[in-house]
Write a structure and sequence with these properties.
Number of strands: 5
Distance between the termini: 54 Å
Strand content: 15-25%
Length: 236
C-alpha cells in the first residue's frame, strides 16, 4: 500500500469520503505505533493521493488539496472527541477525608462541592469539556518531552468527574482525555534534553507511548485536585 511505504510506524486503516457541496473531503485514518504521527500521516496521505491522481484520476476531478480541515490538526473539535486522533486515557484515584484534611486543608465533601460549582458554571457557559486547568500540565509535559506543543489545544480537552461516598467520606476523582497526541519515538523525542526527560520518567522509545499518556493524565489529575483544594480553602 502506497501510504504505508512512507513510514516505519504508520499503517493506513480506512478511507472515508465526506461530500461537502461540490467537493469531496476524504479522511485517511491511520495507526501510528509509538509515534504521534502528524507529519507521518500527511506524507502517507499525499503519496497515496498522488498515486491515485497519476494512475486513475477520478472523472470530473478539477483540483487537489491535501488538507481540508477535517483532520482537526492543531484545533479543538467534537470530531477529535468522537474519533480520537491521539491516545484516549483515563486517570483516577481515591482520597480519604482524613488524608484530604491533613494534606489539602479541607474535607472531601468540601472538595466535591467545589467541583459541583465548576460543573454548574461550565454547563451555563457552554463549556467544551469539564475541567479546571489540565492544559498547564499538558503544555509543560509537551515542551519538556519533545511533543508538538501546537497540539495542546486539542490534547487538553478533558472531563473531570467526582463521586463522594456519604458513608465512608471517600472521594473518587477521574480525569479523562479523549485524544492526547503524544509519541515516545520520532519528532522532538530524539532531542537531547527531551530524550533525557522521557527516559527519566520511563517513557522513551518503543512501547512507551501509552505510558507517556498515562503519566501526563496522572500529573494533570494531581493538579486538578490541588486547584480544587486551593479554591476550597480560599488560597487560589
Amino acid at each position: 500500500m502506497i501510504a504505508n511505504r512512507t513510514s516505519r510506524h504508520g499503517s493506513l486503516v480506512s478511507v472515508s469520503p465526506r461530500i461537502i457541496g461540490s467537493s469531496v473531503h476524504v479522511k485517511f485514518t491511520y495507526t501510528c505505533g509509538d509515534a504521534a504521527g502528524q507529519n507521518m500521516v500527511t506524507l502517507g496521505t499525499h503519496a497515496a493521493c498522488m498515486e491515485l491522481i497519476s494512475n486513475d484520476r477520478p472523472d470530473g476531478m478539477i483540483e487537489f488539496q491535501l488538507e481540508g480541515n477535517v483532520s482537526s490538526d492543531k484545533k479543538l473539535s467534537w470530531g477529535s472527541v468522537q474519533e480520537p486522533r491521539g491516545v484516549s486515557v483515563l486517570a483516577w484515584g481515591t482520597i480519604s477525608n482524613d488524608i484530604n484534611e491533613k494534606m489539602l486543608g479541607c474535607s472531601t465533601k468540601r472538595l466535591k462541592n467545589v467541583l459541583s460549582k465548576f460543573e454548574e458554571g461550565g454547563v451555563r457557559n457552554g463549556q467544551m469539556g469539564q475541567c479546571l486547568n489540565p492544559s498547564n500540565i499538558v503544555a509543560a509535559m509537551f515542551i519538556a518531552c519533545g511533543q508538538d506543543v501546537a497540539s495542546v489545544l486539542e490534547s487538553g480537552f478533558s472531563h473531570l468527574t467526582g463521586e463522594y461516598n456519604e458513608e465512608t467520606e471517600v472521594l473518587t476523582l477521574s480525569l479523562f482525555f479523549p485524544s492526547l497526541l503524544v509519541g515516545s519515538v520520532g519528532g522532538g523525542t530524539g532531542y537531547g534534553t527531551q530524550k533525557e526527560a522521557l527516559e527519566f520518567i520511563g517513557c522513551h522509545g518503543e512501547g512507551k507511548k501509552w505510558a507517556l499518556a498515562e503519566t501526563i493524565a496522572a500529573f494533570a489529575l494531581a493538579l486538578e485536585i490541588s486547584t480544587l483544594s486551593a479554591l476550597a480553602t480560599d488560597t487560589f
